[in-house]
Structure formats: C-alpha cells, structure tokens
Amino acid sequence: MTTEKRILVTGGAGYLGSAVTKMLLGRGRQVVVLDDLTYGTAGLDGVLDDPRLELIRADVRDRAAVRSAVQDVEAVFHLAAIANDPSGDLDTALTRSINLDAYAPLLEEARAAGARLFVNASSFSVYGVNVTPNITETDPLNCRREYSRCKAESEAVVRSFTTDTFATVSIRLATMCSWSPRMRFDVIANQLLGIAQVERKVVVHGGEQQRPHIDIRDVCDLFEVLLEAPREKYSGEVFNAGGENVTIRQLAELARDIVGQDGGEPVELTYEPGRADERSYHVNSDKLERVLGFRAKRTIRESMQSIADAYARGEWSDSHADEYHNIRHLGNRLAAAAVG
Ligand SMILES: NC(=O)c1ccc[n+]([C@@H]2O[C@H](COP(=O)([O-])OP(=O)(O)OC[C@H]3O[C@@H](n4cnc5c(N)ncnc54)[C@H](O)[C@@H]3O)[C@@H](O)[C@H]2O)c1
Fold first, then answer.
1. Among 70, 203, 212, 271, who pairs with 174 as Cys (CB 3.0-4.6 Å)?
2. Ligand 1 center to residue 11 CA distance, Å?
C-alpha cells in the first residue's frame, strides 16, 4: 500500500492545469483535480479513468469541496481562475471572488490538513505597461485591471500563510504557449499560429512590441523542480517565469514559416499601424536560475510547431471557435445565466 500523499491541482482541467495533471500522473503521483469544468473535461481525456486521479467538480469557493480536496495532500498547485485581463473585466465582482477571495479559505484548509507546499499561479500582467528594459521581481507593479490587481494581491495573501512547515511561492508566469487538449487560441503565439493555419493570412498590428512567453511543458518542469527542491530555498518568494522574449512580428513570421511547410497555400503577412493595446515588455527570469537552477528551455518555434502538429493530427480545425477563447466562452455563460 502506498503512503505517498496526493497533489491538488485547482483548475486542473484547464489549459495549463491539464498538462500539469498529466505530468504528475505520468511521474507516478496521485492527483486531485478541483475544477468547476468551465471548459469541460477535454484536457483530461485519456486520464479520467486513471485510478490515481480524483476529479472533484466544484467551485474553488465551495469550502466543503475544498476541505475534501485537501485531505492527504502534500502540495497544492493553485491554478483555478478567470484567466486573463479581458475575461476578468466581464464581471469584476465575480473575478475578485474567484481570483482573490477564494485564496484565504483554500490556504487555511490546505495548511490545517497538513499540506507542505502551496504554489500560486501569478502573472506577468502585474507589471502592466512597463518600459523598464529588463523587468525583475523587485520592479514596481502597475496593475490596471481587476485580473492583474487580484494576482498582485494574491501574492501577499499567499505569503502571509507561510510557516516553517507550510512553504508558499508565487510564480509570475509569462504568456503561455503550446498545444494542450484544453486549448486556448486567445493567447498571442497560439492565436497567430491558429490564424495562419486557418486563414493563410495574418495581419500584424504594430509588430515591434516585445512579449515574453513560456511553453506549458516548461511550466510543468518548473513545478516538478518546486516539488523536489529544498523548500527553504524559495518559500515566501515571488519568481518571474518566462522563456523567450520575442516581438509580435517575430511570432507572425514564425507562424508563417511553420504553417508554410505543410504544402498548402503560402501564408501572407501584412503590416498595419499599432492599436491601443501596445503593451511591450521584456521580463527577466534570472532569479529562478540563480535560486533553483531552472531556466525554460523550449523555443517558441517548438511551442508553435506543437500546435501545427496537432492540426495535422486532426485535433483542432477552427481556432476561432468560442471554446478556445476564454472571454467569449465565459461571456456566453454569464449571458445565459442572466437570461436563465
Ligand atoms: N494562459 C496564460 O498565458 C497565463 C499567464 C499567466 C498566468 N496564468 C494563470 O495560470 C492559471 C491557469 O491558466 P490557464 O491558461 O490554464 O487558464 P484556463 O482558463 O484554461 O484554466 C482555468 C481553469 O480554472 C477553472 N476554474 C475557473 N473558475 C473556477 C472556479 N470558480 N472554481 C473551480 N475551477 C475554476 C476552469 O474550469 C479552468 O479549467 C490561471 O491562474 C491564470 O491566471 C495564465
């Protein structure tokens, strides 16, 4: 009989969460997923029958469900959220209740149940528009929207629960990319690859804006490092986690080159003046390497190639479908709830 404790992944059916769940199962871990299944279970296809997986379909604000989910748990990866700035603006009170108010009860229950580690998925969006050439964790935050404000405030809540036996850490994630069975085509690298594949034509607005990225497989590797590393090295800390910093123009050119290899029509790029949202930032993730010896290793080309490969396998066809765009999917649900 195994005495190994379980790992809780909130939001474990999501874009990142489903990859984390599969990574943990693949490495022999017992996993509990707590997720309200906003986007269904496609991300967990192939592991739903795995006896080492317990799926709890519940809202992360449901305290009884949370109490049940943290039983015999060693570590919590807290990923459940309304997961980007525009979706967070749809209903800011709802965003705050899920993306911030749910933290303290979850942390209390996890710590009381004997968990030893809590990992918080924060975001580079806390830096907002920041022209600092190389943003580090000590640079000022500039949270302009509810999603980013909640991420920034959550870091302080998480840190306040830290004890010698309950390690916490907040990871500020870059924009993620790569194929996932619970796919998002509303993040920029994925979006450009999707448009190139479906329309064979990409309009680039501006193009010189820099955006940091990280492949979800690198995030999985980082989470494994956090499980294995001595907790005193990083507990109570905040880390940037990004891979390549590239311009939108470079992303569009990569999408053109990758899709163009499939033997179909060549992909045409056209350039137009920039639009209102011209966030351009370059984020430094050296602290992760200094403290934990971790550096993201996948290139954006590899990330985008994984999406083209999934297209070739027939795993997606229309990147414009609502299910792949959080703001549309959530907007539809909120509208239906208002009517109902
Ligand atoms: N995708 C990115 O580029 C990015 C960048 C930085 C940080 N993050 C953060 O990483 C985490 C994962 O993001 P993702 O891209 O996988 O998003 P996602 O939307 O694919 O996944 C979020 C998951 O949380 C679940 N969820 C939402 N509200 C819930 C609730 N009230 N109760 C229970 N479950 C709920 C959803 O069903 C979904 O499975 C989020 O915290 C997000 O803010 C994402």
1. 212
2. 6
pTM: 0.97
- Domain segments of the chain as ranges: 6-175+213-241, 188-211+244-277+298-339
> First vs last Cα of the chain: how many Å apart?
48
- Residues near ligand 1 (Cβ within 6 A): 11, 13-17, 35-39, 59-61, 79-83, 98, 121, 123, 173, 175-176, 182, 184, 187, 326
As a CATH number, domain 188-211+244-277+298-339 is 3.90.25
Burial of 124 (0-12, 13-18, 19+ CB in 10 A): buried
% of the chain with per-residue pLDDT over 70: 98
**What's the confidence (pLDDT) of residue 281?**
75
Give the nearest ligand 1 atom to 124 CA.
Answer: 6
Q: Whose CA is nearest to atom 30 of ligand 1?
A: 59
**Residue 119, C-beta contacts closer than 8 angstroms, at least 6 positions apart:** 75, 76, 77, 78, 168, 169, 171, 223, 226
Burial environment of residue 317 by CB neighbours within 10 A (0 to 12, 13 to 18, 19 or more): exposed
Mean pLDDT, residues 256-273 taken together: 94
Pocket residue to mutate for ligand 1, from 143, 170, 173, 328, most atoms within 8 A of Cβ:
173
User: Average pLDDT in the 45-64 region?
Assistant: 98
Give per-residue pLDDT as tens, 203-240.
998 888 888 999 999 999 999 999 999 999 999 999 99
| Closest residue CA from atom 27 of ligand 1 | 81
Residue nearest to atom 41 of ligand 1 (CA): 79
Q: Which CATH class is domain 6-175+213-241?
A: alpha beta
**Hey, which of 100, 123, 214 would you mutate to test ligand 1's pocket, going by the most ligand atoms within 8 Å of its Cβ?**
123
What is the number of the ligand 1 atom nearest to the C-alpha of 84?
43
* Amino acid (one-letter) located at 182: R
Q: Which residues pair with 127 in a beta bridge?
A: none
- Residue 2's pLDDT band (boundaries 50, 70, 90)? very low
